[in-house]
Amino acid sequence: MTEIEPSVFTKIINGELPGRFVYRDDKCAAFLTIEPLRYGHTLVVPLKQVDKWTDLDSETWLHLSNVSQEIGEAIKTAYDTPRTGFIIAGFDVHHTHIHLFPTEEMAEFDFSKAMAADATDPKAMDEAATRLRQHLNTDENGYRLS
């Protein structure tokens, strides 16, 4: 069996690359994307690297869905938006990930309007992570505080 190259998400999860974590448990992690549609745009990623979400085992998929729902509610509350966007795209990084972001309307579901990594304000990104951690009751590594 051929070993696959670790994805950028695997490297973030393993601490080889920096990440602004808002949630983490024994099956998945959630951290801010460096190219957000809006500040607060979070990725929910299984710890095990699986390319396509349709290849996930049902237990992992259910867990990702439940965590996404919890984080989605935190995003909606933290940003006082009527909805949280939920997208599975999967073409840019070959590691299943769910995009969650605060949204007001369908026009915001457009990746061509995402901020470039070098155009985001680091202070605004840090503030977004802190804001979500407060609503999720997690620490800087994404783990539950109590």
What does this structure look like?
With 146 residues, this protein is α+β, with helices and mostly antiparallel strands. The protein is built from 3 helices and 5 strands; from the N terminus they run αβββαββα. A hairpin with a 3-residue loop joins strand 1 and strand 2. It is globular, with a radius of gyration of 14 Å. One of its GO terms (molecular function) is hydrolase activity. This is Diadenosine tetraphosphate (Ap4A) hydrolase. Keywords: Hydrolase. Pfam families: HIT.
Quick recap of the structure?
The chain has 146 residues and is of the alpha+beta class. 29% of the residues lie in helices and 17% in strands.
Q: What strand line-up does the widest sheet have?
A: 1-2-3-5-4
- At the first level of CATH, the class is Alpha Beta
The helicity comes to 25-40%
CATH architecture grouping: 2-Layer Sandwich
- The rounded Rg comes to 14 Å
Number of separate domains: 1
Cα distance, first to last residue? 41 Å
Q: Order of SSEs, N→C?
A: HEEEHEEH
By DSSP, the count of extended strands is: 5
Write the layout of secondary structure elements.
Elements: H1 8-13, E1 21-24, E2 28-32, E3 42-46, H2 58-79, E4 83-87, E5 98-103, H3 122-136
Antiparallel strand pairs: 1-2, 2-3, 3-5, 4-5
Helix pairs in contact: 2-3
Protein name: Diadenosine tetraphosphate (Ap4A) hydrolase
GO molecular function: hydrolase activity
InterPro entries: Histidine_triad_HIT, HIT-like, HIT-like_sf
